[in-house]
Every structure is written in structure tokens, then in C-alpha cells.
Specification:
This protein is mainly α. Helix content is 60%, strand content 0%. It contains two helices and no strands.
Amino acid sequence: MTVCSKLDFSGKAPLARFYVNNRRDGSRLLSSALAIFAAGLMRVDHPIGRSVALLAGLVSIYWWFCYRQIKP
């Protein structure tokens, strides 16, 4: 089972993926998340900066795994 596969917890309707299906839009999402991560790192001395960096970093890792699974 892959990280980005659709999950079905209730047996009724699968959850929508938190990613796109083409490489162009995927690279845009990934670069935006990395830019937000860098902005959070600039203010790592503040709790909000740490939270933004942590959240954007986790989203970036997830989107990187999803991006690698898209066929060119």
C-alpha cells in the first residue's frame, strides 16, 4: 500500500487525496510548501515560526512522496 493511496475507513466513500494528479501542479505545490518551510525557519526563535516550519516540513515530505509516485 502506498502513502498516497485512497483510504476507505467507513466502507462507503474513499477519502479524496491531498495532492494533484500531474507533475506540473505537483511541483508547484511542493515548491510552495518548501518556501513556507523556509519562511518558518527564518523565525525559528518564535513559537509560531517553529509551528509553521514543522507543519510545512511535514506537508513537504508527504507531497514529495506523492510527487515521486506520479508517472511522467
